[in-house]
Amino acid sequence: MNIIFIVGQTAVGKSSTLETLFKNQSSLQLLPNRRELTDQIIIPEMLADTGQEVRPVKDRVERFALTAAYRKKYHTGVIHALKLYLEANDLPQTAVVFDNIRGLEECQGALETFHGARFIFLYAPPLVRLKRMLGRQDAFDSTQLALSDADFKEKLEAIPGALETFGLGPLLELQATSDETALLNAVKIIATEVQNYHAEQAAGYLKTHLDDNQLLYLDTSQLGIDEVSQNIQDWL
After folding, report:
1. What's the rounded Cα separation, in Å, for the pair 221 and 55?
2. CATH H superfamily, domain 3-235
3. pLDDT digit string, tens, across residues 146-167
4. Which end of the chain is more exposed for a tag (fewer CB within 10 A), N or C?
């Protein structure tokens, strides 16, 4: 199968990348994305496995936990779900794009399952992604917070991985110009994602196993939208 995988975590610039791809390659077909496969395949199976009622799950941290459980059950994670989808549906005759995969296990699974696949790897540091998330106001970016009368630093300390991921100083600076609840919400989501998916390990694996024709690595914190677009056009 002629497939291009978008690799990247929250707020790395995947939407802009897809716009560029489909603007310049009208023959490409977009497969159901990660969010759709998670809703249709992963969440129902994991809830059923634990004896819970199958229901929609909107909380992003809960979704991370369920996809982690799925990855523990099936080592390749969402790649396993994608394979199930493709086996149950007619395969497209054109080149296809899947948005998106994350982490080492999913990159390994994609390379092992889809020989000859190509990868666009989008990277941005956690703090950059945090600022982007605060600015984009996406309704999908939600999670439950245990708000209390504690001060801001204590609330951060209660979020696993928050201070290790961002450091206290940058978060205090953001607090001065941001809604505190929205900031804590974004911190919790990205810190949890970092704990579940190691971007550097995934990038290292792909760089070791692929040549420049199969892998395009872009640090979107260092490139403008036009530069990202041009890099993708040249690579295609």
Report:
1. 37
2. P-loop containing nucleotide triphosphate hydrolases (3.40.50.300)
3. 666 689 999 999 999 999 999 9
4. N
